[in-house]
UniProtKB/TrEMBL annotation:
Protein name: Glycosyltransferase family 4 protein
The organism's taxonomic lineage, starting at the top: Bacteria, Bacillati, Actinomycetota, Actinomycetes, Streptosporangiales
Record-linked Gene3D superfamilies: Glycogen Phosphorylase B
Keywords, alphabetical: Glycosyltransferase, Transferase
UniProt cross-references to Pfam families, sorted A to Z: Glyco_trans_4_4, Glycos_transf_1
Domain of life, source organism: Bacteria
Segments forming domain Glycosyltransferase subfamily 4-like N-terminal: 109-284
Glycosyl transferase family domain residues: 299-468
Length: 496
């Protein structure tokens, strides 16, 4: 990884921005202050004390006031920008992508997809650059103010103002202002925004200023993720309705909409977005994931897992909709039958503390590793006998196709997944994996029991899954789909 040096101006900007961010959070909702203080203490405290603080309930961020969130959404919906410049021909081979977060500060499925696509595009001759949202990563409490970080040859640009704007419309304009020099450097033929609507708004503003086409890549539905995190919420809530309306407007304003699967495509079309401007570009894997898995015996020993213990696990962000509680309950049922399995749960998130307590209360053998580096994921795959995707039957899970199961399938690991629409697009029962009713520990226990004690079935499914990924789901194949997508913008295609 290459970085530009941190100069005195950047250090000063950090010292100004972070207090400004804290003041804005306090102004928005004073009740959020204690949780912010706990998170800051967790970062500062040494050793186990910091770890305990980071896992406490008080470390989970308190959501912003829904009334304030809705007021900002209404302000964005009410804003009508002036007419833009006429569309112009491509001035260079560049692609400028606008994303919410990115490597190296954030390692998640979202950032991995961004990075792998950018790497594959650059290998094919695209001059792809990535721009993160206004204030990131300072807005996440990461005190890194380098304006640019290069990872595997991919340039990541940061938009770092001196103070966070308090007005959402001004925030979009400020982000576009800060991105202007990057547009001049890259000379992009395409502006490629990735969920959510704020990234799309910045790209659309720059597209208006420069007469450039805008692609909006919809990787999920923000309002449905919000809905899934609290059972008291409903589709009638103002935040849900306003977010859905704003996301739909950005889709219609873009020149082309890209999404991850056919279920998502159908949802976007149902909102009135013309079917002809929607293209599906699924998740993929790097070629290295198709190589034989490394020997997992050393890591098993390091994790305290017996050499012959059946291991079921996942790599995930720990949110409620992932359904990890169902997997823990299924393991408890298996243990009650005399069938012990070890759960290997790789990742982190707001539900981690509750999941650790649940496993302990039910006597389940579970290893929680926390987040691991992207290049270490396959070492953990090598420990697994079965990869689990126990997502709930929530609207967001029915529509959005995850990345992590594809990576496991590439390594020949049999996948057991919840039987929801999005997962049916990648798992063919009995061929490339197993589908099981969601939120049903008994059904999950039965399916796991069959897989754990059928090594030949596991090998057969794993082999078929790997062959499917190799043929259909590499990042290079994904990059080819992007070339086709860009070409659909009236011939103004970046690259050679």
């Amino acid at each position: 990884m290459l970085t530009r040096p941190l100069d005195k101006r950047s250090v000063l900007k950090r010292s100004v921005y972070l207090p400004g961010l804290a003041w804005r959070q306090f102004r928005d909702d004073p009740a959020r202050t204690p949780r912010l203080a706990v998170r800051l203490l967790a970062r500062a405290a040494p050793g186990r004390a910091g770890v305990r603080l980071s896992r406490s309930r008080l470390a989970v961020p308190r959501p912003r006031s829904e009334a304030r969130e809705c007021a900002e959404l209404r302000a964005l919906l009410a804003h009508t920008p002036p007419p833009g410049r006429p569309a112009r021909s491509a001035s260079g081979p560049g692609v400028l992508a606008f994303v919410t977060n990115a490597l190296p500060a954030t390692n998640a499925g979202y950032t991995v997809r961004t990075h792998r696509i950018a790497v594959a595009q650059r290998e094919m001759g695209f001059d792809t650059h990535v721009v993160t949202r206004l204030g990131y990563p300072l807005s996440q409490g990461v005190g890194d103010t380098r304006p640019r970080v290069d990872v595997d040859g991919v340039p990541y640009h940061r938009l770092l103002p001196w103070l966070p704007p308090g007005d959402p419309v001004r925030a979009v304009e400020k982000a576009a202002d800060l991105a202007e020099p990057i547009v001049g450097e890259v000379r992009p033929a395409v502006l490629h925004a990735v969920s959510n609507h704020l990234n799309a708004a910045v790209a659309l503003e720059l597209g208006r200023r420069h007469g450039l086409p805008v692609v909006y890549e919809v990787r999920g539905f923000l309002e449905d993720s919000w809905l899934s995190r609290d059972p008291s919420r409903s589709e009638d809530d103002p935040f849900y309705r306003l977010t859905r309306e704003l996301e739909t407007r950005r889709m219609n304003e873009a020149d082309l909409v890209v999404t991850l699967g056919e279920t998502m495509r159908a949802e976007i079309a149902s909102r009135g977005v013309p079917d002809g401007k929607i293209i599906t570009v699924p998740n993929g894997v790097d070629g290295s994931f198709l190589e034989p898995l490394p020997d997992g015996s050393r890591l098993r020993a390091d994790l305290g897992i017996a050499p012959d213990a059946p291991v079921v696990g996942l790599t995930s962000s720990f949110y409620g909709y992932e359904g990890i509680d169902t997997l823990i309950d299924a393991a408890a049922l298996l243990a009650a039958r005399g069938t012990d399995v070890t759960l290997l749960l790789v990742g982190d998130g707001p539900e981690r503390g509750a999941l650790e307590r649940r496993a302990a209360e039910r006597g389940v053998r579970a290893v929680f590793t926390g987040r691991v580096p992207m290049d270490a994921v396959r070492r953990y795959h090598a420990v697994l006998d079965v990869f689990a995707v126990p997502r709930r039957d929530d609207r967001v899970c029915r529509m959005v196709t995850p990345l992590k199961p594809i990576e496991a399938m590439a390594g020949g690991i049999p996948v057991i997944a919840s039987d929801v629409n999005a997962l049916r697009e990648m798992v063919e029962p009995g061929v490339t994996g197993t589908l099981t009713p969601p939120e049903d520990p008994e059904a999950w226990a039965n399916s796991l029991d069959r897989l754990v004690y059928s090594p030949e079935v596991r090998r057969k499914i794993g082999r078929s899954a790997r062959e499917w990924v190799s043929a259909e789901r590499t990042w290079r194949a994904v990059a080819v789909r992007y070339r086709e997508a860009y070409a659909a913008l009236g011939g103004r295609e970046p690259g050679p």
